[in-house]
Design a protein that fits this description.
- By secondary structure, the protein is an all-alpha fold.
- Helix content is about 80%, strand content about 0%.
- It is built from three helices and no strands.
């Protein structure tokens, strides 16, 4: 049981790292050159992807914390 939870925690850790790295930074598009080339449609599309990634990141972080708590109690 302990090994299974540890493997699940490792997988959730790697997925959490990947989702955090896939998110764009909060300062993207603020530059003079980069901000002028973005269209309204591309900005809204990236925000929807970023919003989904942020939502998934929160859920995976919750699963990671829950697995950590379970491992500490076992």
């Amino acid at each position: 049981m302990d090994l299974i939870i540890t493997v699940m925690q490792l997988i959730s850790c790697l997925v959490l790292i990947a989702f955090v790295l896939l998110q764009s930074g909060k300062h993207s598009g603020l530059g003079v050159v980069g901000g002028a080339t973005d269209t309204f449609l591309s900005k809204n599309q990236s925000k929807s992807v970023d919003a989904k990634l942020a939502k998934y990141t929160k859920w995976i972080a919750f699963v990671f914390m829950l697995l950590t708590l379970i491992l500490s109690l076992i």
